Amino acid sequence: MEEPEEKALEQEPIEEIPTEIKPRWWPAIIISACLAVVLTTIWSGSGDNQQEQVLKTGGVLIISFVLLTIWALIFSRFSKQLRLRILFSLIGAFALFGACFRFDQVSGNMVPIFEWRWAKRSLPEVADDGQSSSSTGLDSNSTQFSFPQFLGPTRDCKTPGPKLIADWESNPPKQMWRQDIGAAWSGFVVSANRAITQEQRDENEIVSCYDLLTGKMLWMHSNPGRYDTKIAGEGPRATPTIHGKNVYALGATGILNCLELETGKPVWQRNIASDAGLENDDEVDQTGASKKRNKAKEWGYSSSPLILEGKVIVSAGGESGKSLLAYNLDSGEPVWSGGNSRAGYSSAHTATIHGEEQVLIFNQEELTAHAPETGSVIWSFEWKVGVPHVSMPVILNDNQILLSLGYGQGSKLVQVTKSEESYSANELWSSRFMKAKFTNLVSHEGHIYGLDDGIFACINQEDGRRKWKDGRFGHGQILMRANHILVMAENGEVILIEANPEKQIELARFAALDGKTWNPHTLVGEYLLVRNHREAACYKLPVTGTPKQK
Fold this sequence. Notes:
550 residues; mainly beta; Lipocalin; 5-stranded antiparallel β-sheet; 4-stranded antiparallel β-sheet; 14% helix; globular
């Protein structure tokens, strides 16, 4: 009787247990492996153009992130709940980041820089008394307390003064003041205790004067105008020039001011874009210059005024003989114009070539030499590669000039020859070394020192061969005193280096500023003035003949 029951039980169907679906990992593994290979390939190269490497890296990372996201949400076989958590986590992360931070600018290698969305600055106001400190002890007639123009008294990154003491551990730099400042890429110029620079404040370009030792603002002059790009930042680019009782300053929008040094009162004003015939030609950029003609000026007018023989000289980039402009120092009336080259971002410089004084300007496509009396072009040397020309020409002797470009280009030595009354310029050597992007170089005892695509380096000026390359300081600036080179690093550090052609010898360093610093620094006597687009500071450096600071 029990057997039929047992057979019935044996015949009942067995319920199947659903098989768990395993995630599909192989696409993520392939994407990650390809990412590693591509990044290794990008950065295992010669590194001639770090900006290009950074841009390629950014593109590869973005593509990889998109592919991994698509894999995780669609092809991974993750559970519906997990995919939703991934999706909402990504949305939440981007929303939170966007709510807390905003895009500010980019580094010299095009790395994005973000800032806290609620960051605020307190900009100094003009002092009530408008007077400098009376106990400065500075002599306005002394060359060691004068830094009248861009890159120093002779525009060559060299500044006179007492020898710097390299032991900053036992005798550290002393902060005199540090405060917020309006945005700009200008440097300071100094006469006695007056330190002058440019700033962007709201919709106005400002020429400002500070007390060297206290940081107190003594006066400011304002012009309507604003220059701003997300890549290059906002504010004026050029450094003012002090001559006699006046200050000359060119804003990013092309306004050239002559102001009284003591009071900041205007003496005269010109619009160089208008004088160069660029205001009403086709579509204009933010400088007022024609985009078709003056595309190089998309980063703003950057020519620091040059004073020569009763004239102030600036680069405008106009055609029909209006590339380089000269104005009367006292009246602002046009004196001459010359050249047809598009303007670059370098400033005019003087050089004695074969016994004849000439005005040199590194334009967007060529180096040209002009007669100081008439502005006529004496000779030119073409270097047309389609990248911004920023670095100043380095005058080596009476017939040799060193040029340098970033963006993977390198440097060239130009030799100028004279035959009867005519000149010609020819390339003596070309090198992939010493790629000055928007820094400047210095010559010392047969060698060139500077930042080669953000890395400090030394080359032989005779043949362009590299002696050494060491020290990642970014796209900063340099100054030289005696055999010491003072590097203003892109991260705001100041580094003291010995000018040694055999190897890099770092002597000391300290953190002077926070954040990206592209501005040229100023060394006057024992005082170091530094600034970037957010803050400025003055430090007293240890020099020979002074007691140790406590």
